[in-house]
Every structure is written in structure tokens, then in C-alpha cells.
Design a protein that fits this description.
Blueprint (H helix, E strand, L loop, with lengths): L2 H7 L4 H10 L8 H10 L5 H14 L10 H15 L17 H10 L3 E3 L3 E6 L5 H4 L5 H12 L5 E6 L11 H17 L5 E6 L4 H6 L8 H4 L4 E8 L11 H8 L6 E8 H10 L6
Parallel strand pairs: 3-4
Antiparallel strand pairs: 1-2, 2-3, 4-6, 5-6
Helix pairs in contact: 2-4, 4-6, 9-13
């Protein structure tokens, strides 16, 4: 009996699979059901997860053409759907929900249900600035932050919130043109979604310390330093869960002895500035 048949025998219809994938968020409780199902079936690897994702893809694929995003993003979505629907390659990233790092599965669930959008080495979700972040900012920065958010951005939501893509797409972060092309795609999506106020992110990658240490990803901060955006303030020490210790033993060693102290920096690019930049850089759309 195939794993897909076993899933069906336990009462998981295709519609139920789609509903579960659509309910997955960053909250651990939303992953509980699939954890339990994997244990019940003694399933290893990410085969079960990919079955669930295939069901979600089957419900989403015909909706891609109607999305208010540029055609290049629609094509990237189709490419991601193919990747998630195929067995994992030997050198591919695991989508296992019980892996030590399960964010790739969470991201895949959001992409397959059209809640997260690939732009190249970065992705975006439609979100906004949580009110609790105001409590994390240095008090001296609050007047400046409030003026910018309510004066230039126009409010705390909705906005495109940037995430670094998972491998292999994130490998092109070191290629400035690919990063700029990703921002161009996001700016083009802003044109199609007039209610969205701009682009934002809070990450250690925008900390001036990180920018000095890793100049090869400087294009990631360009919109906020050169093209009408702003590195507004910091939100305190970057949490370990934000990934700055991944795949870098030297950075881990520096962090553990207290020599590296990165902060999460809030970066915002208002829609008018992003759209104006895109108009000046139409060659990125080719």
C-alpha cells in the first residue's frame, strides 16, 4: 500500500490535506497534526509532506494567472510548485516537518497556498509592522519612526514583508543584479496592488556591522540606503532563530565569545519610492 493510500485510509481526503497546508503558520501548534500523522505512519524523510504539498498545488495552480503579481513571479511560482511536487533530490533541501530546521516546510506551505511569493533570492508575504515592535525600539528613535511610518509609509499595514529564500534560490544573494531584479519584481507587484503601502523587513542582514562584514550582499540594503527607503531603527539583539549562526562556524565562535553582537534592523521602502525606482530601472524586467 502506498503512503498516499495510507493517508487516505486514515481519513485525510485531498481537501483535508489542502486545509491543513493552508492553516500552517509560524506557530508550532499548526504543525501538530502532520507531526502526529508522520508518527502514526512511521514515515521518514519528507515524502509525506510533499504529498500534502501536491494536494495544495492542485488547488492553487489554476489561480496563478489571476494573481496581481508580474508574470515573472507567476513563473517562479510554477517552478516552485514543480520542485515541491517532486521527490527530494540527493542535494536538495528537506521539507520534513520534523527536521531540525522546519522553516523550509512552513515556507513551502505558504507558497503552495499563495501566501508567500518568490521573487528570486528573496520572497515576500503580505503582512505589516506588529505593534509590539514599537516596544522593542529605542525610545529615542520613536519620534523619527512614527514620522516615517505614518508620514511616508502611510501606516503599519499592509506591506510586503521580505524573507530570504531557502536554498538553492538564496545562493544568488551574492549576485547584485539578481537581488535588484527581485526588488524590481516586488515593486512591479506594488503597482498591481495599490492598497499595499511598501516593502519592509527586520533582519540582522541590515545591521551596519553585518553590512561591513559581508559587503558581497550589499545590494540587499540598497533600497533603504540609496533609493528612498530607510534603515529606521533596531529591534534589539538578533535572535539566534533568525539564522545568523547557520553554516558559519567562525560567526558562531565570535558570537559565543561575545565578539559579535548583531541587531535586528527595521528597514522600510515606501511604495512611491519603490515604484519610482522601478520606473527608472525597467531593464531589470527583461
Amino acid at each position: 500500500m502506498t503512503l498516499e493510500s495510507q493517508i487516505a485510509d486514515l481519513g485525510w481526503s485531498p481537501q483535508a490535506c489542502v486545509a491543513l497546508v493552508g492553516a500552517v503558520t509560524d506557530t508550532p501548534e499548526t504543525l501538530k497534526s502532520i507531526h502526529e500523522l508522520k508518527q502514526a505512519l512511521r514515515s521518514e524523510g519528507d515524502t509525506l509532506e510533499r504529498i500534502f504539498l501536491r494536494h495544495a498545488v492542485s488547488q492553487s495552480i489554476d489561480r496563478i494567472d489571476k494573481l496581481p503579481v508580474p508574470t515573472s513571479v507567476q513563473e517562479l511560482l510554477r517552478q516552485q510548485f514543480q520542485v515541491f511536487g517532486q521527490p527530494r533530490k540527493a542535494d536538495g533541501i528537506s521539507l520534513a516537518v520534523d527536521a531540525e530546521e522546519n522553516d523550509p516546510f512552513i515556507a513551502a506551505c505558504k507558497i503552495c497556498t499563495l501566501r508567500r511569493f518568490p521573487a528570486g533570492p528573496i520572497d515576500w508575504v503580505v503582512s505589516g509592522l506588529p505593534r509590539r515592535w514599537f516596544l522593542q525600539m529605542p525610545r529615542r528613535d520613536l519620534p523619527k519612526v512614527m514620522r516615517f511610518i505614518f508620514g511616508q509609509l502611510g501606516g503599519i499595514q499592509p506591506a510586503f514583508y521580505v524573507h530570504i529564500a531557502h536554498p538553492p534560490r538564496n545562493r544568488s544573494l551574492i549576485i547584485a543584479k539578481e537581488v535588484r531584479r527581485a526588488y524590481y519584481r516586488m515593486a512591479e507587484a506594488l503597482k498591481l496592488q495599490p492598497e499595499v503601502k511598501g516593502i519592509m523587513c527586520a533582519t540582522w542582514l541590515h545591521d551596519p556591522v553585518a553590512m561591513e562584514l559581508y559587503p558581497y550582499i550589499s545590494a540587499l540594503s540598497e533600497p533603504y540606503l540609496k533609493f528612498g527607503g530607510c534603515l529606521l531603527t533596531n529591534l534589539g539583539p538578533a535572535p539566534v532563530s533568525s539564522g545568523f549562526l547557520k553554516f558559519n562556524s567562525e560567526r558562531r565562535e565570535q558570537y559565543e565569545r561575545g565578539a559579535l553582537k548583531l541587531k535586528s534592523v527595521l528597514a522600510i521602502w515606501p511604495r512611491n519610492a519603490a515604484v519610482a525606482w522601478a520606473e527608472r530601472n525597467r531593464e531589470l524586467g527583461s
